[in-house]
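Predict fold of Polyprenyl synthetase; 434 aa.
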Amino acid sequence: MGLSRFASRVVRETLGAVRTAQMRCEHGYLASRKIPSARGAAERLVRATAGARGEGRGTGSTPRAANGFSAHAVSAGDVVEDGGPINPFMIVDDELRAIGERMRRAVTSDIPALSTASEYFFKLGAEGKRMRPTVLMLMASAMTTGISTNAARGGWREADHAPAHEAPDDVRRRQQRLAEIAEMIHVASLLHDDVLDNAATRRGLRALNLEVGNKLAILAGDFLLARASVTLASLRNTEVIELLSRVLEHLVAGEVMQMTAKPESLSSMEHYVKKTYYKTASLIANSSKAIALLGGHGEKSADLAYDYGKNLGLAFQFQDDVLDFIGSESILGKPTLGDLKEGIATAPVLFAVEEFPELQELVERRFKHSGDVQRAHELVKKSKGIARTQELAREHRDLAIAAIDALPVSESSYANKCRRALKELARRSVERSK
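Predicted 3D structure, encoded as C-alpha cells:
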C-alpha cells in the first residue's frame, strides 16, 4: 500500500509521532529457508511474538461444504450448537449492519468527486465479506467472562449517530468504532494496492482506479485513512492509538519490502513471512488486541487476542498462496498464478526451491523471462511446496484456536458461542476454496 504525503501528514498531526514499532515477529521465525517442520516453525513464531501462550493443539479440521467465507449461507459443515448450525457472520450480523450504516456516513464528503470515490466499496452490495468487523465484534463478546445474555445487546443493533470526533461512553460502542476504523484502514490499503498493482477488478467490481483514475483513487484511500485517524483519536486511548498507528506503518513497510527486496531476500522464507505479517496479519492482530484493551481486559488476555488475530491472518494468507496454484478462476473470481505473474515468490515456491534449486534463479529475477512463470508453476506442482504450505496454514489455524481455548473460563453462554465462532473462522480460513 502506498501513502501519499497528505495521509502521512494527517496521521502525524492526528495521532502524534508513531513510536518505532517493536515488531514482535521480526526475529526468530526461521533461521534459514530450510524448515524442518511446519509446526515447529509456527510455534517458534508464537514464542517470538507473544511469549508462547497458545499451548496445545486446537480442534482438527472438519469436512466443509462451503467454498469460502459466506456472510449469510449456512452450510452442512457449519459448527452445530444447541441443535442448530453456527454461522460466525450471522451471530453479529445485526451489529455489522449498524457499523456498515455508520461507515457509509463516515466516508462521505462535501466534495462530490471525493465522496463518490471514497464510498465506492462501502455501498450496499460492495462491502465484501466484512471479515475484520466480524472477527472484532466476535472477539469483543468472546472476552466476556461474567454471565450475560444476548438480549443485553439490543441497543447495539442501532447505528451510532454520534460525530466521529466525539468519544462514546459505552464500551461496546467504542469497540464498534474500532471495527469501523479497522475496516476503513483495510479498504484504504486495497485502494492503494490496486493502483500499485494496476488491478482490474476488486470485489467483483471494476477497480476504483479504472473508474476514477489513479490520482483520485490514491486520494480516496488517503481520505479514508484520515477519517479513520479522527475516529481513532476519539477513543482517547493512547495504547490503542499506538497499536493502530503501528498497523499503518506496517502496511507501508510490507509493500516497500515487496517492491524493493534484494535478490537474496526474495527467496528467504523469513523475509516473506515478515512481509506477510506486515501486509496481512498486523491489522487483524493489533485490532484484536485493541478490542480487548477497550474492553478493560488484562495484558494476558489482550495478548491472546493478538495471537488469535495474527495466526488467523497468516493462515488465511498461506491458504491464499495455495489457492493461487490450485484454485479455480471461476470460483476465485480472479486469474490464478497472479503472484508469479507479478514477480512474487510465495510460500509454495519458497518450499519448492529446496527440492528444485533451479527455481532460485527464477525467483531472484522475479520470473521476468519468457517461460519463467510456466516453469515455476511446473516445478511447484512437482514439489511438496503446496502440501507444506497447507500444513503451515493448518499449524497457524491450530495456534489461533489454541489462543481462544486459552482465554479465561467464561460463564456467559453467548461469550462461549462467540468463542466457538472464532474457532470456526480459523477452520474456514484453511478449508476454503475462494
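Residues 299-326 form the longest helix (28 residues).
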